[in-house]
From TrEMBL:
InterPro entries with a match to the protein in the record: Diguanylate_Cyclase (IPR050469), GGDEF_dom (IPR000160), Nucleotide_cyclase (IPR029787), PAS (IPR000014), PAS-like_dom_sf (IPR035965), PAS_4 (IPR013656), Rev_trsase/Diguanyl_cyclase (IPR043128)
Name listed for the protein in its UniProt record: diguanylate cyclase
NCBIfam families for the chain: GGDEF (TIGR00254)
Catalysed reaction equations from the record: 2 GTP = 3',3'-c-di-GMP + 2 diphosphate
Any Gene Ontology CC annotation: plasma membrane
GO aspect biological process, one term: cell adhesion involved in single-species biofilm formation
Enzyme Commission numbers on file: 2.7.7.65
SUPFAM superfamilies to which the protein is assigned, alphabetical: Nucleotide cyclase (SSF55073), PYP-like sensor domain (PAS domain) (SSF55785)
Domain GGDEF span(s) in chain numbering: 202-340
Matching SMART domains: GGDEF, PAS
Broad enzyme group: transferase
Lineage: Bacteria, Pseudomonadati, Pseudomonadota, Alphaproteobacteria, Hyphomicrobiales
Domain PAS: 71-117
Length: 341
């Protein structure tokens, strides 16, 4: 079947998105070869216009009817989403709005839908609207009408949905007060690094951190002062992560109260001890301002690294906690590991 060729398209003054000229099928001059198919298509489209014109236009979803050459119909929601006046989309092509990275995917989906009956394709793509981009899910299916193939394109704007999903996911893995990862996520990631060590010997070290005399901070400055100390401590640790050597994916997490962990994949214990000592010195220099008051704090750190006797993240954390206990009993404000620092 020879494709429908668009030689001329004249859109008269649009009186409303459901007016005669908001549909593009009566405005085409057709080449001779495709005239029979085009007449069948026009008949089907005209029937849909008479029976469902208003209903299609007020549907709460963005809807396009699309031939191989371009858009023949767009409803009101599609006009709003693509920021176009009623009738302005007629003759334009869906690919005109698709971001460059998604062009091949959407082009293939549209071509497949036009070529095959009963074939529905759903793809996600960035649509460029004015100066913004919206992430949309495009559901494309060929219409069961005779004549020139036409596809129905339903466009769902999922930008806000994806943002909400990302925010919800963040809430499930991040501690609300400090912005550090939470205990659950630390154990999940830590278990992956332990598995990697057991599989191929990839180095992995862990530091357990505990703010010294935290109860005294709470007693002296109230719980608000304690929260302030936790937030300043976490901010300092987050700022420290990008400066760490030999570990480009270190992770900081709060696992309870004033207890934190620092996951250091790819790092042997000697390097982990050196980095932990550098962090300890930075925390010691930190001044926390709370209202008109200020105070300083220190941290004790226990370090442990994967070895043959460690079979789980819980085992590794127990070793790091044991070294943390030793640091506390040796006078606090120090780093202790299985090796001397």
């Amino acid at each position: 079947m020879e494709a429908l060729q668009i030689k001329q398209l004249e859109v008269a003054e649009v009186r409303g998105s459901t007016d005669h000229d908001a549909f593009g099928w009566d405005d085409f001059t057709l080449d001779e070869g495709g005239a029979a198919d085009a007449r069948l298509t026009q008949t089907a489209l005209s029937g849909a216009r008479e029976l469902m014109g208003v209903a299609l236009d007020v549907l709460p979803i963005a809807l396009l009817f699309h031939s191989a050459q371009g858009v023949l119909f767009s409803n009101g929601i599609a006009n709003q989403l693509l920021e176009s006046e009623p009738g302005a989309l007629i003759g334009q092509h869906l690919l005109d709005f698709v971001g460059p990275d998604d062009l091949p995917l959407v082009s293939e989906a549209l071509s497949e839908a036009l070529a095959r009956h009963d074939h529905k394709t759903s793809v996600e793509a960035l649509l460029r609207v004015a100066r913004a981009e919206r992430l949309c899910r495009l559901t494309i299916v060929r219409l069961p009408w005779p004549g020139t193939p036409l596809a129905q394109v339903v466009i769902h704007d999922i930008t806000d949905q994806k943002r909400a999903e990302a925010s919800l996911r963040r809430l499930t893995i991040v501690d609300e007060l400090t912005g550090a990862y939470n205990r659950r996520h630390a154990f999940y990631e830590g278990s992956l690094y332990v598995d990697a060590y057991l599989h191929d010997g990839s180095p992995f070290s862990l530091a357990a951190l505990d703010i010294d005399h935290f109860k005294s901070i709470n007693d002296g400055f109230g719980h608000a002062g304690g929260d302030c100390a936790l937030m300043h401590f976490a901010a300092a640790c987050h700022a420290f992560l990008p400066t760490m050597r030999k570990s480009d994916s270190a992770m900081f997490a709060r696992i309870g109260g004033e207890e934190f962990v620092l996951l250091m994949p790819g790092m042997a214990e000697s390097c982990a001890l050196a980095e932990s000592e550098r962090l300890r010195r930075q925390i010691q220099q930190l001044e926390v301002r709370h209202g008109e008051q200020s105070f300083r704090m220190t941290v004790s750190i226990g370090v442990a690294a994967m070895s043959k006797g460690v079979r789980s993240f819980e085992d590794l954390l127990a070793r790091a906690d044991g070294n943390l206990y030793r640091a506390k009993h040796a006078g606090r404000n120090r780093v202790v590991g299985g090796m001397s620092c």
